[in-house]
Input
Amino acid sequence: QSALTQPASVSGSPGQSITISCTGGRRDVGGYNFVSWYQQYPGKAPKFIIYQDNNRPSGVSNRFSGSKSGNTASLTISGLRAEDEADYYCCSYAGSGTLVFGGGTKLTVL
Amino acid sequence: QMQLQESGPGLLKPSQTLSLSCTVSGGPITSDTVYWSWIRQRPGKGLEWIGYIYTYFSGKMYYNPSLQSRVTISMDKSKNQFSLKMNSVTAADTAIYFCARTPRVITTPTGFDMWGPGSMVTVSS
Output
């Protein structure tokens, strides 16, 4: 079970859109519609922001959206704000009842 | 509103057994729509799924294959708690340990929609 691949860092200016990729394989990301995304501020617990590839939980801003193509899932944040600066993690179901996380991406708002 | 709270010793010596509990308030842990999970985060590193338990029936557990030989997740319905035990700890097990709720679709875990604040565990001689 290998960790999903995310870029270590991404950056963008306020108002712009950024996309964070999450690449796995056919045994995880590409094999199921169960990718979730999390936002984590330093010293805090992660927050659930996307589930089942492209669904937003109640209360999560519609500036956050998820998508998937083949073995790569993506999180897009539009209208970037200073408060979006955080670490972002993807997670996928990987079969046989198991789950696997990505390595995480640090988002910097310039 | 449901809340989760981890508790347990913060300092262990190598070879000891890590033991943490997660107390769930605001609802029963015996729900047929969720699993209850443990996740950890080593200092400065990413998240690592440890395992989860299905408390509705017989308490079936699923574990990260890389940790399976050392980990046990159990439940105490009378206390509305679930627990993590990890034996033979080393410095590499130093991490923040989070408990979380995991909604399920049929039998598939879909992620972690509620989290405890985390409990720091340090393994040092």
